[in-house]
């Protein structure tokens, strides 16, 4: 079992500027000192990280820099999160160009998983056929990463076409992609994380552990998500997969949030 921590809690989330006018260049990016963040995460006890795609592709001209950085801290990059619209056929070619860029670099640093976020909501709202278009786009992206030995999943996410439980169900009724359940996003979207994990257990790729309080996403054990209930269920089912912890958007000290979550998990995963 791998246990990782997402670096996106250590800086603001932005989209790289080139994506405003060139779809192939759009990507998520956490504004942070990658090495300083890696040091803090590994000092806490986590041995793996997940990054947003921009924090991987920024090393595209010399991936050895990133590989050496990971080696210095005895760390691995478990997963990467990639966003796209997916539903616009004319844009899909360039979105897949971007996926290939990310996948090729991810393979070089030993990434096991990619979590896809997205499914654009049109100005006039979700239209008939959009879930089929999303499913088709996800299938194409899944193929790109599979060619590089990386397992793909969809991450139901606030602000996407699969935010609410009924939307998640609608997508997964037309797509066979695996799921990366994020407990706090599921709760914030109006769902019961435990029930959704139970419903889609056979399709789980890996799990995002995150808590939620009245102010937003929070360190594990400090919010109202039944994280322990989900972990008990997964243990009872014999889940042998991997976990990624997140606390993005937390208003407090991100390093303390990392330590709080790590302490919460002690004795609960084995």
From TrEMBL:
<feature type="domain" description="Xylose isomerase-like TIM barrel">
    <location>
        <begin position="40"/>
        <end position="266"/>
    </location>
</feature>
<dbReference type="GO" id="GO:0016853">
    <property type="term" value="F:isomerase activity"/>
</dbReference>
<dbReference type="InterPro" id="IPR013022">
    <property type="entry name" value="Xyl_isomerase-like_TIM-brl"/>
</dbReference>
<dbReference type="Pfam" id="PF01261">
    <property type="entry name" value="AP_endonuc_2"/>
</dbReference>
<dbReference type="InterPro" id="IPR050312">
    <property type="entry name" value="IolE/XylAMocC-like"/>
</dbReference>
<dbReference type="InterPro" id="IPR036237">
    <property type="entry name" value="Xyl_isomerase-like_sf"/>
</dbReference>
<keyword id="KW-0413">Isomerase</keyword>
<protein>
    <submittedName>
        <fullName>Sugar phosphate isomerase/epimerase</fullName>
    </submittedName>
</protein>
